[in-house]
Amino acid sequence: MMTIRERLLGISELNIEQKLLHMRGGQLDEYLQGLDLFVENFPTLEAELRGALEERDYFSFSGCLTDIREMLIQIRADELADECLKLINGLVAIKQEKLEARMTFLLSVLTMLSIDIQMAVYQDEEDPMQCEYEAADEREAWKKSILAVDDNAFFLDTLKDALQGGDYKLTCVNSGISALRFLQNNSPDLFILDIEMPEMDGYELAQKIRAYGKKAPIFFLTGNATHEYVIKAIEAGAADFIVKPITRKHVVARIRKSLCTV
Asked: The whole model's pTM is what?
């Protein structure tokens, strides 16, 4: 069973390797409080940041980024704190469309950081990873199959593009009902489920997947890092998350880690 220190060390955005090894009792508690503060406040600041950018209220935009940067400094997410500072300093010079693109990317990384922190702090990990399940199955990486379920065709197309030419067989369906039909004759090595879908949401589908006896890892597609949202997904069986907007590097890295492929 992994300790909370080991799980935190697995979050690449946190520059804490040396610091964490020397933390004792109260110091670790203080650091965890800083992580909780980031997780709790980030969704509100993200909404304010998006609103300020839409209104082109750069004073408020700068203030929100400064608040986020201060929290990132406290939790030693140094590179992300530096990126916030670059955006703050470059507000006057950066064109609106480039600013929006850079902010979208930054917020997706920050959302993933928030989710990773919650996974590390709150998730019970009786099994260190899903590798034992995969190690017992000696199929080659190129035979690994993935079932993706999302009612939004755009995200499915983006996922296809991200995994195109890779070592995985991707099947896409647009509803939970279609997914359950597929499972009658198939056993994917990994599930990627959107949370917000009509008729059957990702939480309910995850429960039905487990009821079918399927033990493969479940990833949830999300853009929401609120605590209630993440914990509900973990309780539904989430092994990991993929944050929208999707990037190839991010998707492939998370899948390889879960399926223990290189």
From this structure: 0.78
